[in-house]
Amino acid sequence: MAAGRAFFCAPSSIGATARRLAFASPPARPLASAPHRRVRGRCCASISSSSDASPPAPPPYVLTTPLYYVNAPPHMGSAYTTIAADAVARFQRLLEKRVIFITGTDEHGEKIATSAEASGRNPKEHCDIISNSYKMLWADLDIEYDKFIRTTDPKHEAVVNDFYSRVLSSGDIYRADYEGLYCVSCEEYKDEKELGENNCCPVHLKPCVPRKEDNYFFALSKYQHKLEELLTSNPNFVRPSHRLHEVEGWIKSGLRDFSISRASVEWGIPVPNDTKQTIYVWFDALLGYLSASLDDGEQASLQQAVDRGWPASLHLIGKDILRFHAIYWPAMLMSAGISVPDAVFGHGFLTKDGMKMGKSLGNTLEPKDLVGRFGADAVRYFFLREVEFGNDGDYSEERFINTVNAHLANTIGNLLNRTLGLLKKNCNSTLAFDSIAAADGNSFKNNVENLVDKAKGHYENLSLTSACETVLEIGNLGNLYIDEQAPWSCFKQGGEIAEKAAKDLVIILETMRIIAIALSPITPSLSLRIYTQLGFTEDQFRTLRWDDTKWGALKAGQAMMDPKPIFAKIETEVEEKDQASPKEGKGGKKKARSKGLVEA
Ligand SMILES: Nc1ncnc2c1ncn2[C@@H]1O[C@H](COP(=O)(O)OP(=O)(O)OP(=O)(O)O)[C@@H](O)[C@H]1O
Ligand SMILES: [Zn+2]
């Protein structure tokens, strides 16, 4: 879903030529959502409750990322949204929600056809390649989505057709002429007053060209009051609050109808009953959130998609596409008689030199390269911890290295490593006490419990940055505790003092166990490594719930693994100065490399 692409609005002159189409059928009735059985773990969207006598289970937690536009392969911006969504999905699974985490690719439009032609491929071949590059990156980043929808999927086309018919039946589609200046890169008509010199598009810095088209329009203006009501009745519909204010401002300034078809674009879904036009990419792509829930090869319909997983609990998007999700999409759904989503969260931009990183500007950061050098946990942790979720943030490699080294290698990794080392040396790698008994009367346990509750609240509020901070606070507390108690010297004293030292090790290891669970939405592989070093199996890790953060799982007699670094510190090495490049200055340029990622 390209930020630059937007619906173009009907100008006031449209009235002269507009002819509202007359339809006999009454407006659509709201579609009912079928109940779902609650199942732990990965998506089970195809489970039907119709033959089940048990009481209806709560609806699924449906979470979406934007469907990314396949004009180019993914970059760190696309990865950022998807990492955040994966962290939310993992947290919701820990709460035992039946999660349907949807992502995918938006594959129609003129820009795709042009990119395909430039690479000497037909559009479908081009889409296959680029869409696959998204899937591969998501695997590299430990993203566990449940549904990946491509808008060229036949089941999606069926849903779009049904949806178009419903909106048509509501009397909200009409035909009109439009003439204006068009930016092909944005795939939208522009208002002359927003253009620069020589009618240049402000995003693409290229002149817009005059175009005249006969298009179909959606009557957005009819939904002005309903959208106002939506924001009043659900103040959490748009988050964070500064984005809500933006949306309120747009609505207040008056909503204009927008075009939902293109006469000049062949690479798209044909408009029902008018094959000379194709449906405009946004009126097509947003429906992917519905068609995603359908199984491949089944008889696809809009009703079926609604029954499988609607309304969405959360659309996680960048702020560039807020207007489409917070205004156009709910209005379109209202017109089709379908429930609106529960919430839309518009996060900020990753920037480079203050400019939005994006495919069109080509100033992107390569996530594959970062993952290859530093591993998925480091990338996931850095962007969620250091870019305040909801605001913009700039990337710097120096900050990246300093952050992950300090937090993951030192605060968490070293604490586990030295505690297991002490346990091996003094207790034969076996716990001498139950963690409950070890912490009896110790306020440290209460402090950890309070912080875990705080972290849970942050995850629930989508304050992912604060969630990371709070879990790290637990790690800091653990480091402080072990430094103060100095078990290494207490063991030497023997007797009760050594016994207390053995208890302290149990306390720290129980704390590490809790940290592993609480950080697992952000750093799943790192958390698994911690868990297995504590003597648990991978299967036990995979069935954890948030409630398992409760103090007390470690028992006397449990054997721990030998200490092994769970996160390799990233080392910077000074490269030989390139003789031909005097600009680098004395000492050459620094190149960072992980010592090697640690296998689970
Ligand atoms: N710089 C960025 N920071 C954060 N998120 C981004 C960034 N760039 C893209 N995204 C994510 O991708 C979505 C837009 O997807 P799209 O495929 O259109 O990528 P794009 O790089 O913005 O494209 P273009 O530059 O052509 O407009 C955003 O809403 C956001 O979720
Ligand atoms: Zn443009």
From TrEMBL:
EC number(s) reported in the record: 6.1.1.10
Keyword hit for Magnesium: no
MF-aspect GO terms: ATP binding; methionine-tRNA ligase activity
Root EC class: ligase
Domain Methionyl-tRNA synthetase anticodon-binding: 442-577
Aminoacyl-tRNA synthetase among keywords: yes
Cellular component, GO annotation: chloroplast stroma; mitochondrion
Keyword line: Aminoacyl-tRNA synthetase, ATP-binding, Ligase, Nucleotide-binding, Protein biosynthesis
Basic and acidic residues composition bias: residue spans: 577-587
Annotated region (Disordered), positions in chain: 571-600
Stated name of the protein: methionine--tRNA ligase
Organism name: Aegilops tauschii subsp. strangulata (Goatgrass)
Lineage summary: Eukaryota, Viridiplantae, Streptophyta, Embryophyta, Tracheophyta
